[in-house]
């Protein structure tokens, strides 16, 4: 079979699965007065279409910021504005000011779902296809298998097509940036990443690796001469992209300042809901929020995040290769997720994207992490009525990625890039690492399965209403923390040599 | 006969994958067939057997043979654990979330029969030596063509029916014949007939094949029949199998004296020549010819417009269709046409049996013949030909060619079944997926002597794309949408019927070519 036909079959399968998930409910369906993220997106269309651009981020009589006020950077707002124009043509009721609040109908759901699919088809899916075809090693069959697993990652599908968000856009832009950097087009890569940053501020999780990789590369090329020239070109591109995106808001400094204030809400506290990060998990033991003041919470999380990002960024700065870049993306996004301020459970997608990039290199760990990340959003999916798609896509992903990437056969010391460390820890009793890892994986999947079943089927005891969400988030946190340590270790060991990689394939 | 093919780990993977996909369609649109089956669950669960074929609270009365009713009876015992209310006959159009979940899951789980049958079929396929790559093995290609069949997916898991289970029994019986286990094959087919009587269409192929190749144990040297080798014991065995299955199914109703009532439910001849949406067969072409002549006649002042039957201008939306120029067709006329169309195929396996594959070919021609000429044919019936043809397609180049034309047109003709905009991306993507796979995989399988399709066939199939774009995209935006709402359906069925007719003729040509071969040898 030819590669193009297999690729198109994979993409079509990805589309079918996405659309299959989108037939289900969305967040806040039929739940007035606040509804959910679906209504937020629709409300932004209403606001951007009807109000002048100067009022988008301000609290006015026509724009109640307490009701899903815009809190994403300008590119999201422009996207809503374009969607609103299409919506206006189809049915003006969908975006009518004030009167369209909480508008729900099957046709409108179809329209909203279509906008997500269109954005995905234009940005995210092509980037995934190109990445798998050009930047992964191995036979064309292996590339196709990676592509299929990448496209079927359930976490992203369930949040975008079930819960309803446009993560595919920002992650897609980031992926375009990674793709361009991998192909050596540093300038266009930094432009794509700037677009991602301007779509969702959460892309800052990835910013440090981008910065360190490009900086390291410039330093390597010689701080004067070619390196400096590259640096200037990249800086100019980034500045120009930012300026273009913010152009309408730059005329008045108060405008830009208000946007920034909306994007970074410091006043909302260390964490909300049940997130699988350090603070929320620590909260079961120590009530940090009652011990520390708001400001010291902020500084504590800042310091921890900084310390957590530091090693991998430093390593990348000294060794700016694509392999280290991918690892640093994982490490940085995980560090931010685990330690930073005001994290949402959906932010784990930012760590999941770079882990997807490693599906081909470290299949078992990648699959393990991706499964845990989907699992960590279980309470959210249950709230949205996405039980069946959650079960189906998770099982399918687990089964097919393990089978297609033959992940369970590829977990020897070498293949897990742990050879050097085993020598270092010579005093430990000699064990078959592959066997240990495999058993850990089985146990962890069993735990996740049991917890999923328990939180679906059982009613929590009355004095502990949040028992299951807390158990879920703590379990997921342990997984994330383990993965974070592991990827840092891998980043500090020797990069895989070309030769051994060819042998493996 | 090839040795039994080893089925690797890929078969369960394919089966599991498609089952997961089916689960994603649980919340998709379902047609009135959903209510039909819910009503049958209720009837069989809450009423005594004697009332089953008399009950008419709902307009969707029980019109499948008794074994299917017993099947629903069995399902209803599981259903009561999901939602008891769906089992009340008075609860018309009841579709609570747990009812939907149960009904969808029942289709997905009974598809296990189909998966098993597909596995058995894959084991019968002749493998070429030397193809190590799994993707290029005939058994793999066949598994995908059967398990991931586009038509079956949308008809069963979106539109809602139990065809997967029924086709499973059919394919299993075909596989048993391919494995020379004729009695098992006959038993399965007898059960199938008592599950859904539409398979009567292919019964001639079974009857003649079993009589000729099983009851006569030997042939003369020139391939003609040796009358002396008739084995009464075998005929007796066959007969007792068929009679006992039918007795089991119809016996209670005969005992209660309800046979005429049951039969009147099974064979309603009150319906029109064509279904609401014309299946792509001869009658679609006939109707269009009639309409064309009528319009031409009015233009040329040969006919008075006032004299024409009113319904003729809304054809496609009204079940009754009166021909204005050509002769009106009666049910008996279609029966004669159908019998005439399958006669040569049946005669050929009597005169010159070509083993189980000859039988399979005859079965296909029976299925397609009745699809082409039958009374009130549903577009879904084309699957009876498409699924068995998959087996031949992976084995021979010529059959692969016919398969591609028939499958693509047949599957496209199913598009109007899902008319809701929400399901459009699913049907288009699934269709593209299946078509791309079947073209590239069969091409690779029969690589060698140039392209698989002839230029004219390629042009015809590309024309389908044009029709699809015209019907699904251009037409809804055009001003004709209001005046001629039936036009896309008409165009689809007429265009597809050309392809189906062509495939039917090609299959006949193949049969005759086969006939010549023994003479040359």
Automatic annotation (TrEMBL), chain A:
Query: Where does the UniProt annotation place the signal sequence?
Result: 1-22
Annotated Gene Ontology MF terms?
Answer: dolichyl pyrophosphate Man9GlcNAc2 alpha-1,3-glucosyltransferase activity
Keywords linked to the UniProt accession: Endoplasmic reticulum, Glycosyltransferase, Membrane, Signal, Transferase, Transmembrane, Transmembrane helix
Q: Where in the cell is it found?
A: Endoplasmic reticulum membrane
Q: Which InterPro entries match?
A: Glyco_trans_ALG6/ALG8
Entry's transmembrane regions:
110-132, 144-161, 173-197, 228-249, 323-341, 348-370, 390-408, 441-461, 467-489
Bilayer topology reads: Multi-pass membrane protein
What's the EC number here? 2.4.1.-
Q: In which pathway does it act?
A: Protein modification; protein glycosylation
The answer to whether keyword Iron-sulfur applies is no
Question: Which Pfam families does the UniProt record give?
Answer: Alg6_Alg8
Keyword rRNA-binding carried by entry: no
- Reaction equation(s) it catalyzes: an alpha-D-Man-(1->2)-alpha-D-Man-(1->2)-alpha-D-Man-(1->3)-[alpha-D-Man-(1->2)-alpha-D-Man-(1->3)-[alpha-D-Man-(1->2)-alpha-D-Man-(1->6)]-alpha-D-Man-(1->6)]-beta-D-Man-(1->4)-beta-D-GlcNAc-(1->4)-alpha-D-GlcNAc-diphospho-di-trans,poly-cis-dolichol + a di-trans,poly-cis-dolichyl beta-D-glucosyl phosphate = an alpha-D-Glc-(1->3)-alpha-D-Man-(1->2)-alpha-D-Man-(1->2)-alpha-D-Man-(1->3)-[alpha-D-Man-(1->2)-alpha-D-Man-(1->3)-[alpha-D-Man-(1->2)-alpha-D-Man-(1->6)]-alpha-D-Man-(1->6)]-beta-D-Man-(1->4)-beta-D-GlcNAc-(1->4)-alpha-D-GlcNAc-diphospho-di-trans,poly-cis-dolichol + a di-trans,poly-cis-dolichyl phosphate + H(+)
**One GO location term (cellular component):** endoplasmic reticulum membrane
The family assignment reads: Belongs to the ALG6/ALG8 glucosyltransferase family.
- Purpose of the protein: Dolichyl pyrophosphate Man9GlcNAc2 alpha-1,3-glucosyltransferase that operates in the biosynthetic pathway of dolichol-linked oligosaccharides, the glycan precursors employed in protein asparagine (N)-glycosylation. The assembly of dolichol-linked oligosaccharides begins on the cytosolic side of the endoplasmic reticulum membrane and finishes in its lumen. The sequential addition of sugars to dolichol pyrophosphate produces dolichol-linked oligosaccharides containing fourteen sugars, including two GlcNAcs, nine mannoses and three glucoses.
Q: What is this protein called?
A: Alpha-1,3-glucosyltransferase
């Amino acid at each position: 079979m030819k590669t193009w036909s297999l690729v198109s079959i994979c993409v079509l399968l990805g589309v079918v699965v996405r659309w299959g998930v989108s037939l289900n409910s969305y967040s806040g369906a039929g739940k007035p007065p606040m509804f959910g993220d679906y209504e937020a997106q629709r409300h932004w269309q209403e606001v951007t279409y009807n109000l002048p651009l100067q009022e988008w981020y301000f609290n006015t009589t026509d724009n109640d910021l307490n009701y899903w006020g815009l809190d994403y950077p300008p590119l999201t707002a422009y996207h809503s504005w374009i969607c609103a124009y299409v919506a206006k043509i189809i049915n003006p009721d969908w975006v009518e000011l004030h009167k369209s609040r909480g508008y729900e109908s099957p046709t409108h759901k179809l329209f909203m779902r279509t906008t997500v699919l269109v954005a995905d088809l234009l940005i995210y899916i092509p980037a995934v296809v190109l990445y798998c075809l050009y930047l992964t090693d191995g036979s064309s069959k292996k590339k196709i298998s990676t592509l299929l697993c990448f496209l079927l990652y359930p976490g992203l599908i369930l949040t975008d097509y079930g819960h309803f968000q446009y993560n595919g856009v920002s992650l897609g832009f980031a992926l375009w940036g990674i793709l361009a950097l991998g192909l050596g087009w540093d300038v266009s890569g930094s432009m794509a990443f700037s677009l991602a940053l301007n779509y969702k501020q959460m892309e800052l999780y990835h910013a440090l690796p981008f910065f360190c990789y490009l900086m390291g590369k410039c330093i390597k090329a010689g701080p004067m001469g070619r390196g400096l020239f590259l640096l200037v070109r990249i800086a100019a591109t980034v500045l120009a992209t930012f300026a273009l995106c913010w152009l309408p808001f730059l005329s008045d400094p108060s405008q830009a300042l208000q946007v920034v204030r909306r994007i970074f809400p410091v006043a909302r506290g260390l964490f909300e809901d049940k997130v699988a990060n350090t603070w929320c998990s620590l909260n079961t033991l120590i009530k940090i929020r009652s011990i520390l003041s708001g400001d010291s919470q902020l500084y504590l999380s800042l310091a921890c995040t900084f310390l957590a990002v530091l090693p991998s960024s430093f390593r990348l700065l000294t060794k700016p290769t694509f392999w280290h870049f991918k690892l640093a993306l994982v490490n940085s996004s995980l560090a931010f997720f685990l330690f930073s301020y005001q994290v949402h459970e959906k932010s784990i997608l930012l760590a999941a994207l770079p882990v997807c990039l490693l599906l081909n290199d470290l299949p078992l760990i990648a699959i393990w992490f991706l499964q845990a990340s989907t699992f960590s959003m279980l309470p959210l999916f249950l709230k949205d009525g996405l039980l069946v798609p959650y079960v189906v896509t998770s099982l399918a992903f687990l089964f097919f990625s393990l089978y297609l990437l033959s992940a369970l056969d590829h977990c020897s010391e070498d293949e897990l890039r742990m050879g050097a460390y085993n020598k270092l820890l010579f005093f430990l009793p000699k064990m078959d690492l592959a066997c240990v890892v495999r058993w850990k994986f089985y146990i962890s999947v069993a735990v996740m399965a049991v917890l999923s079943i328990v939180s679906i089927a059982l009613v929590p005891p009355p004095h502990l209403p949040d028992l299951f969400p807390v158990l879920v988030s703590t379990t997921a946190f342990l997984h994330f923390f383990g993965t974070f340590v592991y990827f840092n270790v891998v980043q500090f060991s020797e990069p895989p040599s070309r030769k051994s990689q060819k042998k493996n394939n | 006969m090839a040795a039994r093919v080893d089925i690797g780990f890929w078969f369960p993977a394919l089966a599991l994958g498609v089952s997961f996909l089916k689960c994603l369609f649980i919340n998709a649109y379902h047609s009135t067939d959903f209510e039909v089956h819910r009503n049958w669950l209720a009837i069989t669960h809450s009423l005594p057997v004697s009332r089953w074929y008399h009950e008419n609270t709902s307009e969707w009365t029980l019109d499948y043979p008794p074994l299917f009713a017993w099947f629903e009876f069995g399902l209803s015992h599981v259903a009561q654990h999901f939602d008891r209310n769906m089992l009340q006959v008075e609860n018309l159009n009841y579709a609570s979330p747990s009812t939907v979940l149960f009904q969808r899951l029942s289709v997905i789980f009974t598809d296990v029969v189909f998966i098993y049958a597909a596995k058995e079929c894959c084991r019968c396929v002749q493998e070429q030596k030397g193809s190590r790559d799994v993707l290029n093995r005939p058994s793999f290609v066949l598994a995908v063509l059967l398990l991931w069949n586009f038509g079956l997916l949308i008809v069963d898991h979106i539109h809602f029916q139990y065809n997967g289970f029924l086709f499973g029994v059919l394919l299993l019986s075909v596989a048993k014949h391919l494995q020379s286990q004729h009695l098992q094959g006959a038993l399965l087919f007898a059960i199938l007939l008592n599950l859904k009587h539409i398979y009567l269409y292919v019964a001639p192929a079974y009857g003649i094949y079993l009589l000729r190749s099983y009851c006569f144990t030997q042939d003369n040297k020139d391939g003609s029949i040796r009358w002396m080798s008739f084995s009464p014991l075998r005929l007796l065995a066959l007969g007792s199998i068929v009679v006992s299955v039918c007795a089991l199914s119809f016996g209670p109703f005969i005992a209660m004296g309800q046979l005429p009532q049951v039969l009147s439910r099974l064979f309603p001849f009150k319906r029109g020549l064509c279904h609401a949406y014309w299946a792509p067969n001869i009658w679609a072409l006939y109707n269009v010819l009639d309409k064309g002549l009528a319009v031409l006649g009015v233009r040329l002042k040969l006919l008075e417009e006032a004299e024409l039957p009113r319904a003729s201008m809304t054809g496609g939306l009204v079940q009754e269709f009166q021909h204005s120029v050509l002769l009106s067709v009666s049910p008996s006329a279609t029966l004669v046409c159908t019998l005439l169309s399958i006669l040569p195929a049946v005669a050929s396996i009597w005169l010159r049996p070509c083993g189980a594959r000859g039988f399979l070919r005859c079965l296909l021609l029976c299925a397609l013949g009745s699809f082409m000429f039958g009374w009130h044919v549903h577009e879904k019936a084309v699957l009876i030909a498409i699924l068995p043809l998959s087996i031949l397609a992976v084995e021979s180049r010529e059959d692969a060619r016919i398969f591609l034309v028939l499958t693509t047109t047949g599957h496209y003709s199913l598009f109007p079944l899902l008319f809701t905009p929400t399901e459009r991306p699913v049907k288009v993507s699934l269709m593209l997926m299946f078509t791309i796979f079947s073209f590239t995989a069969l091409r690779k399988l029969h690589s060698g002597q140039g392209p698989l399709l002839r230029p004219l066939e390629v042009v015809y199939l590309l024309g389908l794309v044009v029709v699809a774009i015209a019907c699904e995209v251009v037409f809804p935006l055009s001003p004709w949408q209001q005046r001629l709402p039936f036009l896309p359906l008409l165009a689809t069925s007429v265009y597809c019927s050309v392809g189906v007719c062509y495939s039917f003729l090609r299959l006949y040509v193949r049969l005759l070519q086969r006939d010549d071969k023994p003479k040359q040898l």
